[in-house]
Design brief:
single chain, alpha+beta, six-stranded antiparallel beta sheet, six-stranded antiparallel β-barrel, 26 strands
Length: 511
Amino acid sequence: MLNVPTQSFPAPRSQQRVAPSGQSRRNKVNLKPGHSLMDWIRFSKSGKDLTGLRGHLIEVTQEEMQKHNTREDCWTCIRGMVYNVSPYMDYHPGGEEELMKAAGIDGTDLFDQVHRWVNYESMLKECLVGRMATTVIKASIPSSPQTSLAPPMSMAAPTEKDSRPRYDWFQTDATVHLVVYAKRKIPSSGCTIVDLEAGVLRLEVLLGKISYMIHLRLADEVEGNVAVHNAFLVGKIQVSIRKQAKGKWSSLGQPLEFHNTFLRKKDRALHYRDCVLVSKTEVNHNTHMFRLQLPRGTVMHVPVGKHVYLKALIQDTEVVRPYTAVDQNLAAASQESDLYLMIKVYPDGVFTPHLNSLHVGDCVSVSGPEGTFSLRPLRDVTYLYLLAAGTGFTPMARLIQLALQDGDTIRKTKLLFLNRREEDILWRCELDELAASHERFQVEYVLSDPCESWTGRKGRLDESMLQDVLNRPDGSKCYVCVCGPNAFTELSIGLLKQQGFSEEELHAFQG
């Protein structure tokens, strides 16, 4: 009997490979009509035999695996499990060419390059052939380090023992306090995520690309609320919890998996918590602001430029999508603990119609902050340019606030905001008010399908438009952020490089 793993999301220690500035994580192809993700979900549930084995699971040898390497008969292995991906070829957003790179071999590393948040076990469960009986040849990924599936204890970045964070704890009769000493300055934008549920404390401190984690089953029962206090300059984080019964504990608790570990962030599996939909308000004709309330025992601030993943079970398949957190408005950075997400609803989409169907009080699973954006390059920038198309505006909203409130060196922030029609422009009134009240901020709108009365800039992004918009005064230091559909991002980065911008002066937000 094969020991087929139960569905889990994401696969343990799966990787996220976020491309450098200007490079897409993968090439998308135009799928044939009737070959969307939802179409695949329907097709895979149709009862058809997608393995060619009439429902039998087999042990697959290396020799057998290598025989199935054609378009019509394509098997691949991911984490020891073999799938017949031929039926999926026409539904794969990356196209046939990408899947065929792993034909007849182990495609785990290739998959991990771009699919951290995809639940392949759920997506391909009807294509499961069986388990590998032996180790197979692995797909070769140029210029990409091999990754281990074992807990990456040896991957901690700093080698000096005294540079690793440490923790301590103390208590009173009524409270218990855990203190993390990061041994470096910590960002004021937020770097601590705390989840307290059923007596289990999970604390993660994000320090650039590295993550420090405390994971404990507490020694005794506690109340659900958690308080977090940060001393940013000295790198000290204190988490305070009230005991349910007064008295002294002999220990803080029992260590759980990955307790007291210091690893690369991408080597940790995503952690989800169920958040409650508090409100849904209209931003424009097809975009809404979703306000989500974190669980009682969770403290999480999403740093500027980071995104979270939302996860839902749709027709028995787990579907996940990334969304960038925004503030409630552009007036000032929000001090609230609730999460605000500005999301465009696509009627023919898979995830957003489900999200739009939720009622106040319903729950949705939300991951912790993810993403490669760093504030470090902005420290001495004098001109900040933001190129956004459609809902690519979302990461720019908080960047604008940051530049105006905390960016002491930034003399000018300019947003070039491209949309199809005038009614598509998000937060137009707020942007206009901000530009009118702050001389250091400018916004210019571009419409590709304007009405006759439109007097602003028209057309699509091209070289001449960028030359008009982007100024590089002598002695200035410029930085450009880009966000939008993949094609827009690739075009923008290519044009910016033609104009002399280097990799160090660009950041492309990847969806």
